[in-house]
Every structure is written in C-alpha cells, then in structure tokens.
Amino acid sequence: MSRGPRRGRGRRNRVPSEPITVMIRDLAHDGRGVAKVDEKVIFVDGALPNEEVVANYTKVKKEYDEAQATEVLVASPDRVEPFCDVYGTCGGCRLQHLDADRQIDFKSEQLKTNLARQAGLTEYEHLPNLRGESQHYRFKARLGVKHVPAKERVLVGFRERLTPYIVDMHRCPILEEKIDSLIDPLSEMIGKLSIASKLPQIEVAVGDNSHALSFRVLEEPTAEDLEILKAFEIEHDLIVYLQPGNESTTTALSERGASDQALHYGLLDQLTLYFKPYHFTQVNPAMNNKMVKQALDLLDLQGDEKVLDLFCGLGNFTLALATKAGSVIGVEGDKSLTDWAGRNAEFNNIKNVEFHCADLTQDQKDAPWMNQKYDAILIDPPRSGAIEMMPYLGALAPKKILYVSCHPATLARDLAVLTKEYPYELISAGVMDMFPHTAHVESMALLVRKDA
C-alpha cells in the first residue's frame, strides 16, 4: 500500500518534498523498513514490518529510494519507546524502537536468509540465540569531540545519523555506566583546555577494574592543559592517555597507565587478558564470555587435539582453546596483537600455545603453521570475511571448522566454498547479540568434515 507523488523520468534524482504514506512489508539487513511505491523499493528508517507510516524522502536512486519515518499511523506490536534522549538523531543505535527480544530474532533471520540464499544451506541445527544486557554493555568506543563556539559547548559523543556532525548529547545509555555519566564532565573539562579545538576524538577502553580514555591531540598540550587532564584523571579515577600521532605514540599521563597490567578483562573465570587502550577487544565483555564458552562447547575438545586459531588477536579464543586442547597455534596480522597474545599466555602460565604474525589475505602456502595437521580450526575474521583462506582450510582438512563472523553475508559466501568445493557439512549455526539496538549480526557456525 502506498500513497505518494508519482515521479517522472526527468525528476529521477530530485528528492520529492511531499511526504508519503506506506505500508512496511519487511526489514532490510540494516534494520530499515522495506516498502514499495509505484513498484519501486523504498527503505524507510525508523519503521517496522506491518506498520503504516508517514515518511519523508531523503534520497532518490535509480534502483531504490530512501526515507525517514515521521509518523506511525498503525504501530507494530513489537514497537517500543526508545530509551535514549537522542535516538533518531544519533547514528549509533538504529533499532531502539524494536523490542529487544525481536531484535535478536531479526538477526537470526538475517543469518538464516544469507545462508539459504548465498550458500543453499538450510539443513542444520539452529543454535539458541545468545543474549545479554541491552544497556551499558559497550566497554569500547570512539567518541567524537567538537568545540562549537555557537553552542558555547564542547560536544562529546557519536555522530549524527545523516550528517558528519557530532550529536549534542549528555548521556549515552549503551556505554558502560561510568563512561555514560562522564559525557558532560568531559565536555566541561575539554572546554577549559587551550587545545579544545585540536582534540577530535577520545578512545574509550574499559577493563574489569579500570576505565581508560585516550585523547587524540593534534597539538601539544600546555603545562596548564596537562594539569587539568591530571586533575580530571584523579577526580574520576581514570587512566588517561594522550595520542599525538598513530597508535604507537599513545602515552599514559600517569605511572598507573604506564603499567602493562593497567587494563585487563577476565575470561571463563580462569583467564586474565591484558591489553592496551588501542588494541582490539570485544566491546561487550559479558557476551564475549558467552561466545567463547559456546565455541568451546561446540568444538568439544578432549584434551589431545591440535588446534589452529586464525585472526587470533590478543588470544581471546586461543588461550581459552589451550585450556581444553593439547596445543594451539594462533595467527594474526597485527604484530602488536601477537606480541601481546604471547604475553597473555605467559601471564596465564599457558605453555601449549604459539603465535605467528601473518597477513592472512596473502599467500600462506609456505607459512610454517601451514605444514602441520590440525584436528580443529577456529577462524574469526573481520567483516570482509576470509575468502582467501578457504582453500587453505580445505587443504588443511581438519575434522572441525568453527567460523565466528561479524557479517552474515561474508560468512555465507565463505561457507558456500567450504560446503561446495570441499567435503564439509554445516552442523549448526546461530547468532549472538554483541551489539544490541544495532543491525550488527555476530554469528557462529560449526562445520564437520564428512569423511571424519
């Protein structure tokens, strides 16, 4: 159903000013509602399936149009009131208007749809959805900073949904509780600095017992600036870092932050992983624990297996696997991460692991870890997936492959290779709500070699 202006060919790229009324049929992969106007698909931000909404066009393209819902005429029973004051303006959380239980169902459907359409995979066990807290879950974040004289205020927060500007916000309820409460104090403190206009972002890194803020500074702070920052660090019990250049220039403001053990998180009640504020760690530590536990349960290691962990990072999966396997090799492209993974093994007195630094998008046939036999391989690539590694996995021929993915489309693409070109069968797959209120889908799939 649709009621709106017809557009001729000559107006194809002109955004109509008149609002339209549409019936939403489905949700797209990014969480926008899907409707049709004159048989042309239109993606409507802020709308849910089975809703009738009034919307304003925001973009007109050849293949589809885009719009923003401005009024809900008939609401879905799954619609809820967003809990954030800047929802709709902020680009951080697109699905707050959808009930949290239905959010994870939507993500599960995204995974099933991708596996079916791209890989023809429909016969497998659907793992139970993994969920956690839907507020104050985010322990890693990058906050934008902008001194805006017209507002007589330094803006600290995330960027607006449709613009490059930073949202004028005072709280962020998805951030870890203490960081959530620091938005206004940070704004006030930065406003006192002589370099307020030369401080574009803050990296947030929260450990189990510490809160780190890494300030990107484009100009050297004055002595007075440093005193202001130090006072803020003490007042709020923080660890403050300054980053004048790339990540390697990150320097702690105090002795506490200089320690290699300043930041850490616990894993499975038996491991402690240390990290620097610029290292990649999962943003949601509670879900990370559930994810790692599920990985161990699915692999069902008996204690004598040899396991390969690709894209291993700091050793998040590697060290957990080492507690159950005979030996584990971790491979990662960032040397800083593999160095720290080795340190984390030492910190935890784990001796049955080794780490290699390698660019896993490049030829690996002569890599030392390629000339070994593995019982199981765990792979946790970036959003782009690991299509380059699929032939190597096929050649290594482990009994089990566990693929952890942050993008269902590239997961499906890669599993199509493993199940069509190599003798692997998809046994089970499911999703984890690592990023509540966003369309981001974290998933896990277990494959077993048919002749194993």
TrEMBL record:
It holds the Pfam family TRAM. It comes from the Bacteria. It is an enzyme of class 2 (transferase). S-adenosyl-L-methionine binds at Q282, F311, N316, E332, D359, D380. [4Fe-4S] cluster binds at C84, C90, C93, C172. One of its GO terms (biological process) is methylation. The keyword Acetylation does not apply. It catalyses: uridine(1939) in 23S rRNA + S-adenosyl-L-methionine = 5-methyluridine(1939) in 23S rRNA + S-adenosyl-L-homocysteine + H(+). Residues 13-71 form the TRAM domain. One of its GO terms (molecular function) is methyltransferase activity. InterPro entries: 23S_rRNA_MeTrfase_RlmD (IPR001566), MeTrfase_TrmA_AS (IPR030390), MeTrfase_TrmA_CS (IPR030391), TRAM_dom (IPR002792), U5_MeTrfase_fam (IPR010280). The keyword Chaperone does not apply. The active site is at C406. Keywords: 4Fe-4S, Iron, Iron-sulfur, Metal-binding, Methyltransferase, rRNA processing, S-adenosyl-L-methionine, Transferase. Its EC number is 2.1.1.190. Catalyzes the formation of 5-methyl-uridine at position 1939 (m5U1939) in 23S rRNA. HAMAP family: 23SrRNA_methyltr_RlmD. Belongs to the class I-like SAM-binding methyltransferase superfamily. RNA M5U methyltransferase family. RlmD subfamily. This is 23S rRNA (uracil(1939)-C(5))-methyltransferase RlmD. It comes from Ignatzschineria rhizosphaerae.
